[in-house]
Every structure is written in structure tokens, then in C-alpha cells.
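STRUCTURE:
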């Protein structure tokens, strides 16, 4: 990431990493505060880390434009005003798609939610179960036949969008930029 930013003309004034179980980010955040940075990108692996970082940013009175990955963004909806204006990227989830809209409506109703944090992951988990169920109905319970069935999935319309597997068993999805404004997530790009 540092190299890509530098190639785009962004001056990286501080770059630090941390292990997943870190609970005190004050040293890293203090370095950022005195570095002259105008913005801070936070790439976390767990929601707990993001909540701690946001609280410690507030404690240290660090007021920078925040950017983050999808975990940072989805976690921040639970953090209140300390996450205001955070811009983050995440895989696009087209909520206008009828299967997606139905899934989200039912999920919100079942769990009494206004907003579904980690909606894409929830939809992908649902789709995985649906695809496995379809595979077993189609070819039975033999693992090799299930694997072969899944390797040939093409344009399966799921709650998370269109799912296809080509070659290396991985799919690709478009990403969008979102911002937290007044405690709500809005798509900006």
C-alpha cells in the first residue's frame, strides 16, 4: 500500500503495523499526531481493534481525516461520533437487487436491526449455504462431486450478487467507497 500511495504522489509520513491482539495504540497514534500527517488509513483485522483505535484517537485529540478498510468502516457504525467522516472501502452490495433486498429485509426483521453491519459477509454466508444445498440436491453427498459442481458455478444470483468461479476458485467483486456521516453509512463512490 505504501508503494501505491507514493506512486500516486501521496507523502507517507508514518507507517506502522500491529499484531491482532494489540490493545494499546497510543504510541503509534502519538507518532502519527506529531508527524504532520493530514490523514490516517487504518487497516484492521478485527472490529475490537478498530473500536480501541477510535477511542484512543479521541483520548489523544488526534483529529485527522480517517480512511479504513471494510472492517474499520463496518465497526465504526457502532462507535458513534468518534468515527464521523471515516471513509472506507468495501465490496459492493447492490441493495437494489431483489434477492439482496429480500435477504436484508428479512435479516433486519429477524434481528430487529436498522442497519446490517457486515451485510456483505452475512449475504455471502447465506449464499454459501444455498450453493452447498443446491450442490447436495444436484449431485449428492460425495465431496468430489460437490467440489466439481461448485467449480462450475457460473452466474449464480445470490443475496450477495452474482457468483461465478473461474479457475483458481476465487471470485472478484467491485468495491465502493463509503463515508460515515451523522452516524450513518452513505455511499460516496
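SEQUENCE:
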Amino acid at each position: 500500500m505504501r508503494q501505491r500511495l507514493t506512486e500516486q504522489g501521496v507523502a507517507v509520513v508514518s507507517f506502522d503495523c500491529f499484531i491482532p491482539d494489540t490493545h494499546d495504540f497510543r504510541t503509534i497514534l502519538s507518532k502519527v499526531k506529531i508527524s504532520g500527517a493530514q490523514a490516517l488509513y487504518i487497516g484492521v483485522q478485527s472490529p475490537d481493534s478498530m473500536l480501541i483505535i477510535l477511542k484512543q484517537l479521541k483520548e489523544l485529540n488526534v483529529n485527522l481525516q480517517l480512511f479504513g478498510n471494510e472492517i474499520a468502516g463496518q465497526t465504526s457504525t457502532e462507535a458513534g461520533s468518534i468515527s464521523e467522516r471515516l471513509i472506507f472501502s468495501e465490496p459492493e452490495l447492490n441493495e437494489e437487487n431483489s434477492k439482496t433486498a429480500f435477504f436484508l429485509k428479512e435479516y433486519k426483521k429477524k434481528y430487529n436491526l436498522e442497519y446490517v453491519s457486515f451485510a456483505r459477509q452475512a449475504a455471502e454466508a447465506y449464499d454459501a449455504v444455498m450453493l452447498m444445498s443446491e450442490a447436495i440436491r444436484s449431485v449428492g453427498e460425495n465431496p468430489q462431486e460437490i467440489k466439481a459442481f461448485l467449480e462450475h458455478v457460473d452466474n449464480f444470483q445470490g443475496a450477495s450478487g452474482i457468483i461465478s468461479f473461474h479457475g483458481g476458485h476465487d471470485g472478484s467483486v467491485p468495491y465502493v467507497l463509503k463515508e460515515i456521516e451523522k452516524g450513518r453509512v452513505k455511499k460516496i463512490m
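REMARK: The first helix runs from residue 2 to 7.
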